[in-house]
Hints:
Elements: H1 8-26, E1 37-39, E2 47-49, H2 52-57, H3 64-83, H4 88-107, H5 112-133, H6 139-151, H7 154-167, E3 172-174, E4 186-193, E5 211-225, H8 228-241, E6 245-252, H9 254-265, E7 271-275, H10 280-294, E8 298-299, E9 316-323, E10 328-333, H11 337-351, H12 358-369, E11 371-374
Amino acid sequence: MPKQISFDEDARRALERGVNKLADAVKVTLGPRGRHVVLDKKFGGPTVTLDGVTVAREIELEDSFENLGAQLAKSVATKTNDIAGDGTTTATVLAQALVRVGLRNVAAGANPTSLGRGMQAAVDHVVEFLKNKATPIKGRDNVAQVGTVSSRDSSIGALLGEAIEKVGEDGVITIEESSTLATELEITEGVQFDKGYISAYFATDPETQEAVYDDAYVLLHREKISALADLLPVLEKVAQSGKPLLIVAEDLEGEALSTLVVNSIRKTIKVVAVKAPYFGDRRKAFLDDLATVTGAQVVAAEVGLKLSEVGLEVLGTVRRVHVTKDNTTIVDGGGKSDDVAGRVEQLRKEIEAPTPTGTARSCRSGWLSCPAASR
């Protein structure tokens, strides 16, 4: 399709119209008295929501230039959701105001570069002011109040306060669909780390872009996996078992990745691959931690294990694995509780050692020892 080009005031006004159309649809959900928005879905029935970013994600405009503006505003909501998890409607409304005032000043002859610098300086000042005025949340009641405002449901707010009280600040909270009509809290042993799937094609839910599997095997590999021949033996054994497979490795590329993606799309095998976080010794230590939690053995040449020669005996297990584009959460790993407790105690002793890696060890001991709550 040939590219359309627009300049100057016409281009700016088209972008502004796009921003306004998206923001006007989103901002009706703002605040405790915000209204619901009904979304027409391609599949299934309509969705009723009060969530600003959910509304924003559904908006595509027919005019290509207006759609560019809408996508810019959408990126504000999605980034706010990724970083903060809330406040997406407020962020969109602020972005709309900045665009409106900014374009008005540009039309009046202001220098766009100087205007941008001034806006950034103002943002920095406001952020610093808010940080100084912010009150740290303390106790179950404070958490419940925030949860109630965000969800507009006092029972959910109370449940959230209970969950954070039980799992602590380093704990992980996930939301799962209940098999009953009740909203319940369940505390399980689990861990979360900041790496998501290598390819979006591994997502089991195209709407939420998440991969969720129950009763899965876990393969931990210290190096890159690129040759399909190396991965095929263990892959065939997992496929015969009928269980899903989580792969955590330095990287997955080439024919190994493409084959997994194709088979995942065709649902020949249930699999999701994740890059191991960190580098060097920190990555090695992380994989050892994960091996302790899941009951797996880390496949590496230095311990005499070759990927092409191993079977199910080196794999760990988890009751549930939940992977997004940014995070991986493991619930109820198959490792022995005594081994996990021993590993945590070892890390806590190492934290006291005067080394630059003390902070990293502290983080690792935190996610190893804290439970996960699901509701």
